[in-house]
Amino acid sequence: MVDRLVNSEANARRIAMVENCFGSSGQPLAEQGRVLVGEGVLTKMCRKKPKARQFFLFNDILVYGNIVINKKKYNKQHVIPLEEVKLESLKDEGQYRNGWLIRTASKSFAVYAATATEKEEWMAHIEKCIEDLLRKSGKQPPSEHAAVWVPDNEAAICMHCKKTQFTVLNRRHHCRKCGSVVCGPCSSKRWVLRGQSDKPLRVCLQCYDDLTRERARVPPLAQPAAHTPHTAAVKSALDTAGSGGDSSADDDSDDDDDRAPADHSHDEPKFYGDGEKTEETNNHSSKETK
């Protein structure tokens, strides 16, 4: 079905509508061979709290953004190549139901659908797109993925020292290696995590020790020079971050400047599959009846 929709006028119109909804804040999405497979609202687990996000599934990328005006305007566009994605189903727990993890080398996060059926539909369509992409490219799925950040409200005290209580002055930070919520002193080290950034990132003391031991076991010739933790770049990053700032928000930009849509009603996700009549099919049928 995807192959049949590649050159359809209906597909081109849908992609153009997505581009228009993001406006100048988004990047162009129309490319040769790209198909909009489905769209809908999912609840994304953000750093501070779960928030509704509009998702668009294409045959090669997954796009999501903040909802400014439902079905009319979105911002903070994020584009994720599907070749880098791995899905992992989550068990229902309390109020968090119908969820799964979207894992990539640079960022991983949890999303939740409104119903079990919608979760099944989303995961099946995403998995099918990933499978088709990898089969056509001959590539292997990535073996390493970024940690999923623990939400702020799940940690009243530092998850490393188990002592520091978070207050207005003692702010929360996230270890980029394990995703734990930690205090400033317990995350004072930096390390270059290649899949996430070329710059040194905040890591907790436990992960720093683990990375240091792992580095010691690797032959010197195989070690990237940028992994040296005590460099001028690291000092600059530490000075910029400061002891009182919370750098966690820097890597979770869609968690900021959030405006809830005026319409909170739930619309089921829409997938453009074999059950849908394309414009070409409708035109062909109408010609036959004349």
UniProtKB/TrEMBL annotation:
CDD domains: FYVE_PKHF, PH_Phafin2-like. Residues 220-241 have a biased composition (Low complexity). Pfam families: FYVE (PF01363), SOS1_NGEF_PH (PF22697). Transmembrane segments: none annotated. InterPro entries: PH-like_dom_sf (IPR011993), PH_domain (IPR001849), PH_domain-containing_F (IPR051765), PH_Phafin (IPR037871), SOS1_NGEF_PH (IPR055251), Znf_FYVE (IPR000306), Znf_FYVE-rel (IPR017455), Znf_FYVE_PHD (IPR011011). Residues 259-290 have a biased composition (Basic and acidic residues). Residues 220-290 are annotated as: Disordered. Residues 248-258 have a biased composition (Acidic residues). This is Pleckstrin homology domain-containing family F member 2 isoform X1. The lineage of its organism: Eukaryota, Metazoa, Ecdysozoa, Arthropoda, Hexapoda.
